[in-house]
Amino acid sequence: MATTASKYPQHYDDDEDDDDEFEDDDDDDEPSRPLPAGSAEDRLEAAVGPDLARAATVPELLRAAAAAGERLRRLGAFESVSITLDTAPPGVPADARGGAVVVLVDVTEARGRAAGGLGVFANTETRSCSVEGSLRFKNLFGYCETWDASGLLGLDQTMELNVGAIIPRIGPIPTPLMARVSFLSEDWLKSSLREHLMGVSVGLLSTMNYNLAYNLSWKTIIDPARLSSSSIRDQLEHSLLSSIKYTYKIDQRDSSIRPTCGYAFLSSSQVGGLAPDSKNTRFVRQEFDLRVAMPLGVWNGALNAGVAAGVIHPLVTGSTGSISSLPERFYLGGNKSLVCRLGGPSSLLGFKSRGLGPTDSQACAPKNSENAAPISPELDALGGDIAVTAFADLSFDLPLKPLRELGIHGHAFVSAGNHAKFTERDIRGFSVTEFLKTFRSSAGFGVVVPTRLFRIEMNYCHILKQFDNDRAKTGIQFNFSSP
């Protein structure tokens, strides 16, 4: 069976109809203008793909048409997409496989579609609030591209700006084109340090599950109060991070806000120190994250379980052996959802951000007067070169019908994790048994309010196990987590 494709008409009206049947142009109030040859039409044909022309049977043709329509919809550049299969008009020759089929693709293009948001969020951990905003433009120049910008300004002197663009894979472009510029300035909680970061990230290869990106960042760690510990003082300098990162991600869960079935897996490998002047940012980093969701069949309940692990091996040797860069180490704790985030070990409910693991005492602050009592020094979190976290989360519907209709549900959870230094000297004396014995853990329950953009949790956390110098607290916590 041979297939032929007609010219793809493009509409410029505001028709929101998403019907799957082809609409005749003669019925439109405003005639459609054809796409210029060699430009938008070529990109449209490339997005449709060659499978329609290769189909040899009717079932193959139907599957190819459905797949082509889905690809066009995923581009997000069209208000409506419809593909119609029709018999060829008289005079179209048939090949040896049978009669010819005409494929009619009708799309209504959406130009410059914009979306944005602005919100004020409270962080109970830092006792401060922040203003966050985002703006996104879709198909601004007609290449199905996405332009986005986001920003955060916090009362704790945290500022973050991100601007990026994504052009999907079309025609001669072998892979989606991605580029992002970012700026970050933040204070490390309960620490004398302040971090500044300016970076550029460029996507080299991207598919549905694979991503290869290059990152170039200029980082600065400063100590305005000059109170940093001796372990951190050596890293108070500028550093250049030139790295390449490969990520494999698959997410088969039915939802990232409230998953009830499916699984998700992420593996990321990063090599830092590609530039000649990368100083102490030469390392190899590997992370894994596995999530599983199982339905229980009662009260719409589901059991979510996950385990994440990461290790960083520094390639720079100092006076005490190999030393990893301070910002690249693993830090555990913080009020982040156990379920949503898929990106390696980090969250441990009930513990403050960077609130557990190896620490070092800061320099003592000067006394206000001679008779004043000495001030006990704060502790600087040193992070770890190896980290492991695990959790289990049981979600269930609440008995009140109005809450169920809004998606508000309850959950109970338990989480555990630990991290440790893993330098050359530590490897020789590293004990897996001791590492497992020093796991920190917490448990609790709460109410979850899911929204379209993020997940709000109001939890009561109880610390099951902690050690000296850990910053943890039993009580009520609030957190906002995006998928």
Automatic annotation (TrEMBL):
Pfam families cross-referenced by the UniProt entry: Omp85
UniProt domain Bacterial surface antigen (D15): residue ranges: 194-481
Keywords: Membrane, Plastid, Plastid outer membrane
Segments for region (Disordered): 1-43
Chief location category: plastid
Organism of origin: Triticum turgidum subsp. durum (Durum wheat)
InterPro entries linked: Bac_surfAg_D15, D15-like
Biased composition (Acidic residues): 13-30
Annotated protein name in UniProt: Bacterial surface antigen (D15) domain-containing protein
Gene3D superfamilies in UniProt: membrane protein fhac: a member of the omp85/tpsb transporter family
Subcellular location: Plastid, Chloroplast outer membrane
Lineage: Eukaryota, Viridiplantae, Streptophyta, Embryophyta, Tracheophyta
GO cellular component, one term: chloroplast outer membrane
